[in-house]
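Local shape tokens

___
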Amino acid sequence: QVQLVESGGGLVQPGGSLRLSCTASGINGRIYRMGWYRQAPGKQRELVADQTIDGTTNIAEDVQGRFTISRDYAEKRSYTESTVWLQMNSLKPEDTAVYYCYGHGVWGQGTQVTVSS
């Protein structure tokens, strides 16, 4: 059974940085696309960034230049785990949301990111 476990959320002041991590376990083969979504209170879940196994990246316009997604390509050698990171810099209050990792048709449990002074 595939599971995604996230970590790295928390409270940060505007202008600060956080790094989210998500590890998928229980997989049997490559995960073509892994990514991060977020959902703020009263809003729909939206894509933040995702990346395919061949490196093709999508990043939402409102986080371009501030957020970076990366993946552990060690999965090319071991097809039982895969990790994706989201480096978030220059955080703004409007980045406050629950951030969800997605991959292989599975969602993580979510990690809260709060940007506030």
User: Anything to note?
Assistant: Residues 4 and 24 are 4 Å apart (CA to CA). The longest strand covers residues 18-25.
